[in-house]
Structures are given as C-alpha cells and as structure tokens.
C-alpha cells in the first residue's frame, strides 16, 4: 500500500482549512505504510490513538475489497467524497452481495470518521470504541482468510478465477431459438421494406410536383421503417438541396455512404451541396470519387467538374467586381447607377430602350458584366412589364421593335465570354419559350439578333448543354428550318447551329422521342423548291436528317411515313431537272434514301423501283459524281440499295433491266478493288439473272470468267466468293448455253491457294444470300451445281481433281448425297438450283 494521510473533514494538512479526503503522500509502496502525520496543534484535544486505529482499519477494508476481486475504483471516493488517487481493483467474479457488503462497510467507516471529528467528546469516544471493535473483527477475518486466500498486490488485473457453469445448455433448443428469431427479423424487415418503398414512391411523386417539404416527410417516415435504405437518404438529400438546406443534405449523404460506401448518388449530391456552399475543392473530391467508383461515368463527371470550375470562376469574378465597385471605378459605378435607373417601373418604352443601349455600351469588360449579374440585371430587364409587353406583341411597331432589339443586343453583350451570365439567362423561367418564339418572329431583324444570341451560346459545350436542357427544342428546330426561306448567309448560320446541336447525344435522344412532333416540319423541308432555296443550306439540312436516320428507331419512323418518302422522291425529281445545279442536293438526298431503304418492310414496291432507278442513274453518271463527291461510302450505299431493292422486290429487278439491259453498270463494278462493292454487285447481279431472258442477253459478255475468277479466289473475302459462285450458278441454270460456251474454262479451272483454307460453311440468313466476312465455304460448289444439267460433263467433273469439291461442311455438299441426282436421266436444272439457293445469304447486311 502506498502512503496515505488521513485528514479529518474540515482540516487541511497545514491545519488551515477543511478537507475531506485520503491524501496520498509521496513514497515507495514497497517500504510499507508510513506513520500518520500528526495534525496541527489545537485541532483535536484528545489523544490520537483512535486515528491510528482508523488508519489500520481503512487499509484492512481496502484489502478486503481486493480479496473480493472487485474490478472497481475505490467506491467511497465517489460516494462520500473520499479521494484515493491511484487505487483500482480487479473484480474477477462480480457478485452483487459482496458489492453491497463493501458499500455498507464504506458507509459505516465514513460515519465513524465523521463522528471522530465531532465536537462532542462522548460521540468521539463512542466512535473510537466502535472503531476498535471493527478492527478486531477485521483482523480475525483476515486470519481465517489467510489459509485459503492470497492476494498478489503486484498485479493490476489478476487472471479470473475459473468458473463453472452449472446450467447445462440445450444446444438444439438454442439453435432453434436463434433460427426463429432470425425468421421473425427477416419477416419484419420485409414488411418494413414494403412500407418504406411505398413511402419512397409517395415522396417521389411529391418531389416531381415540387412539393419538397412533403417529399422530405415521406422519406423520413420511410427511414423510420428501414434505417439502412440508402435511396431514402439520397432522395431526401436531393429535396434538401432544392430547399437550400445544404447542411442537412450533407448529413443525409454521409448516412447513405454508411449504408453503401460506393453510393455514387450520395457523392453526387454531396458534391452539389458543397458546390452551393462554395467548398469547391471538396466538391471536386466528391465528383472524383464517383469516377473512382465507376469509370464509365467519365462523361458525366467531366460535366460536373466543369460546373465547379465555372462557379468558382464566377465567384472570383464577383469578388473582383465588388472590389472595383468599392474602389469607385467609373464604369463600375455607372453600371450600378444605370441598373437602378432601369429598375424604375411604368416608364415609356423609349425610356427603357435608351437606357439599355447605354448599358450595352458599358458591357466592355468582365467587371461590368459581372456587376450586371450581381445587381440583378437579368431580373430588372426580364421582369419589367413594359419590356415584357414589347416581347409578347405579335405585330410590333417601331418602338416595340427597338426595345426588343436593344434587349437582345444587351444579352449578347453581357453573355460574351461569361458562362455564368449565360447560365442565368437561360435558366430564367420565361427564356425557354421566349427565345424560340423570337427566332420565329415575323420581324427579320429580331430573328437575326436572336439567332446571333443562340450562336453565341452554342459556341461552348456548356452553352449547348444549356440550350438542350432548358429551351423548347421543338419550337427551336421548327424556327431554325424556317431560315431556309432566306437566301443569304443567315440560312447557313441557322443550319450550322442545328448541325452543332444534332451532334450532341442529348439532342439525338430527344429527336428520336419527339420525331412525330417534328416530322411534319422535316417533310416540309423536302417539299421545298430547290430553285428558290439556299442550296448549301438545304444540303446541310438533308444531311442532318440523314445522320439522324442512322439510328434504327429514327429510321423506322421516317420510312413508315408515306408522305416523307414521297417528298424524298419528289425532291429527287426536281433536282433531276437541272443535275448540274442540284447535284450536291441529289447526293445528300441519296444518302437519306439509302438509310430509309434499310427498313424494307415499310418500303413500297413503287418506292423500291423508283429508288433503284435513281441509284443506277447516279452510278451510271458519266462524270462519276457519286464516286468523287460521295466517296467510297456513297458508292457502297448506292450498290447496297440496289441489292436491297432487287432482293426484295421483283419490280425493282425489272426496272433495273429496263434501264441497263446488259447490266453494264454492275459488270463494271465487278472490277472494283472494293470487295464490299463487288460483293453487293454480284448479289444484285444474281437477283437480276432470275428475270426471264436476262441471262440470254449476257451470252456475249465475259461475265462467266469474271464470276469464275471471283469465286475461285481472286476475291479475298469468302462471302464475295460465295456470292460470285451463286450468281454464276443462277446464270448457268437460267441459260444452259453459258455452260456450253464456257464449259472448257469451267472444267480446266483450278482454285489457287487461299490462306483461308476450306474452313466451315457460313450460316444462312432469311434472305438467302451470302453475308460478307464469316466462314470459308467454297463457292466452286455452286459452280458444280450449275453444271449438273449437262450430263455430258457430269462424270468427268466428279473425277477431275482440279475441282476442290468439299465433302464435309454439309450433307448437301457430299458426293454421296448428290450422286443419285447426278445420274438420273431426267434431272432438271431446277432440282439443282434448289440445293444452292438455300445457301444464298446477304452481303448488304454488313456494308456500312
């Protein structure tokens, strides 16, 4: 035990003041207890033998507590003001009875000490006697315990005594109880999940309506049902952001991240809240965290980070502008004064027009543009009733037109190189409908100024995003295509703006969803007279439609409209009246029509026949215009559309034969180095030879050796070889004299080595012609089929090693399967055609 000084209540060590504590004195615990210091003179008049007895009593009681093993601070230090610094005891086996006994002893000792300090000698004497009795009893108890209990005073936490559990636990009952509890918990969770989902949906409905307070209440009730539902936290955070309570939004985001540390929505709303609180660096960190979790969101994160940069830039601009205003800069003070003057209501229109013109002249620097924003310039102009009346009037007089022109020029000035001003302008509630309506105004000058403002906004990615996110795109598109009425550069500028928007993914998504609303306007473009329309602007507009029709859903809607298809044909007919003047329009229109033909179920026979005629005419042009102007892609599409139409419509084949009886255009294309072009040309050729008398007209041509070379290996793509072999087979089947005239070449033909080898057979499509690219089924098999009708060649053909007839790709191609047909006396060409026509696939599916 360490050294302690027992100071009576009401006395200090020096005898100068009251204390009530056990005071630890410096010293070495190993040296044993030090003698008690004698109190100051005059404190107690009696002998201190009772104090010595108390001194022996207290350590004994403490030692008893230690033996009991209670891991607890000296209890009387908290119960009656005792301060025994440094005493902690280990309670190995907590027992309530021992604890109560100990506390009772402490109370009794405390009372004895207080009685010793009493002014009444009788009470003091009685307390001393009682102390001696307790001390004697304690010593006797110690002697009994020494034989069975030892105390290791050097250990802070002695090991716990081993305990014996007398209750035998029923393992099966315990597991059953646990299982039952788990099922009950799971059931309650499912019930709460249903309730929480219902409250979430209710909150979402309120959020959509703009009732954010109700939404927050619903989300909060849902969280009472299910506290770990992260979507409720993120939804409530979003509602808090709408109400401007960004701190609460951050708290909800933190809770959502506790539910799911990879919750990207939580980081998004957290970044948004920090951005509103101008914690720009923290906001960036939140957005960067989204990118770490999901790298596929790089585009979205880039936009978020761009917003942070713009807001931080705007904040810096506002600080600099305020400094300029505080320093009394002339232009800054003038800007502020002009805005105060313009804020006066109910003035004549010319008053506002003049003030706005002066203010526009002041917007030369970023400081003045920023002051316009910070001093509510947009609200002063947009909410002025006189100015609003001037904008809303359909037939404007000179003064109203002047006011509108002044405001549009002011907006151009304040938005120049100032993204934050652009954002505030577009986010105005009335701007979304106002700008498209002004763009379609009857007053040309207003239309021109509005177009200039929109072109200014569309120069940056952020500006284009603002246009697509907040303006009426249907009205905007209709207004832009109406600029085709202008013959000057305004039409080109309008189409340039439309092109910039059409390249954005958000615009394409909107266009596909809103096509029924704007299809009439696009059809009107095709119905225009090219003679009175800006040719370059018309080409650009049609090119936009062609690019947008590359999407299958958009193309499907366009091709399903008979009025739209007829407008395409009508415009093509008008252009043919002066090919030299409207050649560019024809080529652009051809690209659109090619895309539409891909939706063959929606294309009529008349349409297919007419488009085939147009394509053949363009491919047959003497100047090679489609090859030079449209390039390789245009040539591919022209042949591709011929292959589609002739494959689906017999009328298209007949129209093609009528225009080119000996198929000279297709024959010429067979010599092209572009194998996709060649493959589609052979497909189209094979379709055309099915028309009666066409094969006979080709007897004097060299089509057989050309097709034989392509099928034999001159073509690198297997699909081209297949189409060439199939076309050759159809030709020989339709006209037997082709075999008689070219028989020697057919029999002596040897397939040159090919790196692809024999391989396996390609698959078959529903159309029955070869798909470019896959498999290596040898086309010479089709040549063998084409010769089956000539019995004089059959037996030599089967034994000639020069013909690489594959035996494995399919039972259709095995000799054992073909042999019964080969030696029948009455085998018709149709019998053999049946076998190879099943292998017809379609090249055009793979052509871009």
From TrEMBL:
The gene is TTC12. This is Tetratricopeptide repeat protein 12. Signal peptide: none annotated. The keyword Repeat applies. Cytoplasmic protein that plays a role in the proper assembly of dynein arm complexes in motile cilia in both respiratory cells and sperm flagella. GO terms for cellular component: centrosome; cytoplasm. InterPro entries: ARM-like, ARM-type_fold, TPR-like_helical_dom_sf, TPR_2, TPR_rpt, TTC12. TPR repeats lie at residues 264-297. It is found in: Cytoplasm. GO terms for biological process: axonemal dynein complex assembly; sperm axoneme assembly. It holds the Pfam family TPR_1. Residues 1-38, 140-166 are annotated as: Disordered. Coiled coil: none annotated. Keywords: Cilium biogenesis/degradation, Cytoplasm, Phosphoprotein, Repeat, TPR repeat. The keyword Metal-binding does not apply.
């Amino acid at each position: 035990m360490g050294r302690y000084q027992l100071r009576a209540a009401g006395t200090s060590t020096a005898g100068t003041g009251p204390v009530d504590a056990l005071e630890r004195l410096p010293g070495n615990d190993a040296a044993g207890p030090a003698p008690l210091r004698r109190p100051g003179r005059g404190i107690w008049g009696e002998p201190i033998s009772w104090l010595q007895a108390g001194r022996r009593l207290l350590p004994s009681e403490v030692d008893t507590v230690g033996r009991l093993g209670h891991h607890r601070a000296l209890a009387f230090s908290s119960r009656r003001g005792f301060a025994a610094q440094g005493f902690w005891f280990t309670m190995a086996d907590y027992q309530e009875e021992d604890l109560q006994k100990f506390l009772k002893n402490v109370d009794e000792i405390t009372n004895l000490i207080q009685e010793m300090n009493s002014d009444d000698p009788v009470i003091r004497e009685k307390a001393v006697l009682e102390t001696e009795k307790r001390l004697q009893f304690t010593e006797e108890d110690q002697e009994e315990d020494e034989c069975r209990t030892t105390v290791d005073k050097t250990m802070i936490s002695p090991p716990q005594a081993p305990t014996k559990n007398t209750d035998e636990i029923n393992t099966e009952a315990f597991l059953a109880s646990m299982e039952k509890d788990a099922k009950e918990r799971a059931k309650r969770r499912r019930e709460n999940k249903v309730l929480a989902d219902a409250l979430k949906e209710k909150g979402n409905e309120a959020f959509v309506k703009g009732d954010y307070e109700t939404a927050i209440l619903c989300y909060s009730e849902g969280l009472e049902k299910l506290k770990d539902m992260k979507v409720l936290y993120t939804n409530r955070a979003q509602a808090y952001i709408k109400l401007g309570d960004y701190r609460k939004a951050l708290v909800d985001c933190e809770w959502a991240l506790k539910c799911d540390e990879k919750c990207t929505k939580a980081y998004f709303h957290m970044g948004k809240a920090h951005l509103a609180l101008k914690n720009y660096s923290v906001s960036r960190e939140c957005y960067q965290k989204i990118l770490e979790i999901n790298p596929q969101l790089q585009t979205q994160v880039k936009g978020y980070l761009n917003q942070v940069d713009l807001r931080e830039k705007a904040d810096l601009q506002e600080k600099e502008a305020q400094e300029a205003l505080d320093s009394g800069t002339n232009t800054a003070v003038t800007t502020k004064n002009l805005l105060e003057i313009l804020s006066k209501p109910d003035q004549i229109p010319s008053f506002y027009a003049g003030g706005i013109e002066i203010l526009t002249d002041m917007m030369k620097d970023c400081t003045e543009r920023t002051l316009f924003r910070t001093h509510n310039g947009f609200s002063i102009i947009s909410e002025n009733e006189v100015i609003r009346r001037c904008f809303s009037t359909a037939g404007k007089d000179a003064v109203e037109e002047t006011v509108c022109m002044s405001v549009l020029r002011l907006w151009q000035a304040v938005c120049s190189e100032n993204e934050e001003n652009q954002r505030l302008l577009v986010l105005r509630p009335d701007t979304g409908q106002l700008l498209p309506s002004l763009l379609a105004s009857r007053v040309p000058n207003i239309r021109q100024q509005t177009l200039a403002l929109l072109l200014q906004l569309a120069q940056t990615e952020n500006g284009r995003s603002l246009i697509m996110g907040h303006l009426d795109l249907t009205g905007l598109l209709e207004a832009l295509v109406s600029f085709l009425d202008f013959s000057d550069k305004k039409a080109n500028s309008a189409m340039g703006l439309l092109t910039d928007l059409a390249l954005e993914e958000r615009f394409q998504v909107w266009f596909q969803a809103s096509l029924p609303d704007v299809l009439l306007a696009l059809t009107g473009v095709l119905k225009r007279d090219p003679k009175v329309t800006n040719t370059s602007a018309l080409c650009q507009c049609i090119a936009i439609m062609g690019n947008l029709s590359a999407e299958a859903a958009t193309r499907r809607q366009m091709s399903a409209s008979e009025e739209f298809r007829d407008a395409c044909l009508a415009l093509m007919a008008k252009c043919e009246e002066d090919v030299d003047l409207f050649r560019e329009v024809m080529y652009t229109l051809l690209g659109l029509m090619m895309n539409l033909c891909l939706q063959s179920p929606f294309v009529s026979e008349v349409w297919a026949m007419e488009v085939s005629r147009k394509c053949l005419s363009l491919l047959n042009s003497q100047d090679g215009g489609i090859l030079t102007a449209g390039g390789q892609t245009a040539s591919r599409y022209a042949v591709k559309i011929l292959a589609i139409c002739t494959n689906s419509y017999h009328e298209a084949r007949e129209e093609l034969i009528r225009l080119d009886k000996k198929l000279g255009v297709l024959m010429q294309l067979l010599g092209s180095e572009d194998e996709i072009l060649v493959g589609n040309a052979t497909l189209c050729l094979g379709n055309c030879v099915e028309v009666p008398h066409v094969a006979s007209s080709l007897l004097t041509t060299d089509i057989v050796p050309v097709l034989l070379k392509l099928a034999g290996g001159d073509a690198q793509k297997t699909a081209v070889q297949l189409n060439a072999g199939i076309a050759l087979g159809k030709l020989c089947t339709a006209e037997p004299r082709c075999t008689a005239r070219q028989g020697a070449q057919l029999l002596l033909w040897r397939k040159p080595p090919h790196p692809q080898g024999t391989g396996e057979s390609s698959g078959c499509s529903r159309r029955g012609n070869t798909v470019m690219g896959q498999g290596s089924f040898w086309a010479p098999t089709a040549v063998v089929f084409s010769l089956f009708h000539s019995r004089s060649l059959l037996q030599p053909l089967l034994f000639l090693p020069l013909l690489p007839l594959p035996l494995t790709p399919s039972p259709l191609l095995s000799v054992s399967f073909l042999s019964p047909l080969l030696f029948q006396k009455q085998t018709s060409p149709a019998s053999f055609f049946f076998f190879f026509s099943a292998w017809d696939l379609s090249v055009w599916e793979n052509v871009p």
